[in-house]
Design goal:
seven-stranded mixed beta sheet, Aspartate Aminotransferase, domain 2, about 375 residues, disordered N terminus, about 40% helix, globular, Aspartate Aminotransferase, domain 1, 15 helices, alpha/beta
Length: about 375
């Protein structure tokens, strides 16, 4: 390995400023409130509600925090079960386990890497309370089928749309399709605030309790609205309100929603076209977007023939100063995943694809010459 490469010339991800982010941070300070739920937090919530037709959006310090709130709102208890994919970030399962419930992992589809809706019903038991779906890479799960299953079995549906902001399924925005949904604004996502997230509430009956849980279990929001003469501790909760500084930065990003989306699609199409010939020769597979889905182009990954090839290609790229990375280690194979589930779990598609997947650099201001360098380096690997 080249010892002279101390850092990637082309990183996997890089935070960016595209609008008035820094101006809004200064404005937040000038307005005299940089704790939570100030002017910019409200502006972000309103923008997301109106843009994505979601009855109530509550900003949170992270998508993890939003998932924890969602699990509480599902009223999970010890002994309850929640169906979810194993191919996801740990926060999806952690939110369930923290409430004492048991995650029930099912396999993913080979095309989208989303939960396989055809396997969900067989995993339902009398203890099942909810289905947590994960929209991988900004491509929607098969929500019509999943919601139909949930209705017939009286289950809550939570969308982990961490990667799905401004993506669509059958014309409807991700985040608006389940009882609850969560967004992420982590610096690796399409729209960023460093750390940050949101809880989307599509069931109006859950709004009041969600506000209480978010505000440390108090009814402070009712007090601010003049509905009670003092506020007090009324439920479980935690500190799930983000800093106004974070919200001010985020508002600058959300104002540029379309510009960011268009740029990411351009990057995605560059990779898609540049790697088409390698797919034609059977050397890799590019992402698949079903006809009913509109992606937000959150990431571009390739699938190669086996893990040995993936690791070798990743090293080849890193030696050229290009940071390409794999993604999730399946949760059912993790040390803690084995502790919180029962019996031996075999998810063949998850286990196979997770070892073959490689994510390519994807960020707003990556240049065409850098993209060409990534594509050319991959081509050279397969030409050896």
């Amino acid at each position: 390995m080249n010892q002279h490469v101390t850092k990637s010339l082309i990183p996997f991800n890089k935070p960016f400023i595209v609008g008035k982010e820094l101006h809004y941070i200064a404005q937040a300070v000038t307005l005299g409130q940089i704790s939570g739920d100030g002017f910019y937090t409200r502006q972000c919530s309103q923008l997301l509600q109106e843009r994505f037709h979601i009855p109530r959006v509550l900003l949170t310090p992270s998508c993890t925090a939003a998932l924890e709130m969602a699990a509480i709102l599902c009223d999970l208890k010890p002994g309850d079960e929640v169906i979810l994919p194993s191919y996801t970030f740990v926060s999806t399962a952690n939110a369930i386990v923290r409430e004492g419930a048991t995650p029930v992992f099912v396999d993913i589809r080979p095309d989208t890497l989303n939960i396989d809706e055809a396997l969900i019903e067989a995993a339902i038991t009398p203890r099942t309370k909810a289905i947590f779906v994960v929209h991988y890479g900004g491509v929607s799960c098969e929500m019509e089928t999943i919601n139909d299953i949930a209705r017939r079995h009286q289950l809550k549906v939570v969308e982990d749309a961490a990667q799905g902001v401004n993506a669509f399924y059958q014309g409807q925005p991700l985040g608006s399709l389940g009882d609850l949904a969560t967004y992420s604004f982590h610096e690796t996502k399409n729209y960023i605030s460093g750390e940050g997230g949101a809880l989307c509430i599509n069931d109006p009956q859950l709004v009041s309790r969600a506000e209480i849980i978010r505000d440390k279990g108090t009814n402070r929001q009712e007090f601010f609205r003049g509905h009670v003469d003092k506020y007090t501790w009324v439920d479980v909760g935690s500190s799930y309100v983000p800093s106004e500084i974070v919200s001010a930065f985020l508002f600058g990003q959300l104002e540029m929603l379309e510009a960011i989306s268009q740029r990411r699609e351009t990057i995605y199409r560059f990779y898609e076209q540049g790697l088409a010939e390698l797919e034609e020769h059977g050397l890799l597979r590019r992402p698949i977007i079903p006809a009913e889905c509109v992606s937000n182009y959150h990431l571009f990954y390739i699938l190669v023939k086996d893990q040995e090839t993936r690791d070798s290609l990743m090293q080849h790229l890193n030696e050229a100063g290009i940071k390409a990375v794999f993604h999730y280690i399946p949760l059912h194979n993790s040390p803690y995943g084995k502790q919180v589930t029962t019996g031996s779990i075999h998810l063949p598609i998850t286990e196979n694809l997770s070892g073959r997947l490689l994510r390519l650099p994807m960020y707003y201001d990556i240049t065409d010459s850098e993209l060409e360098q990534v594509v050319d380096t991959i081509r050279r690997y397969f030409d050896r």
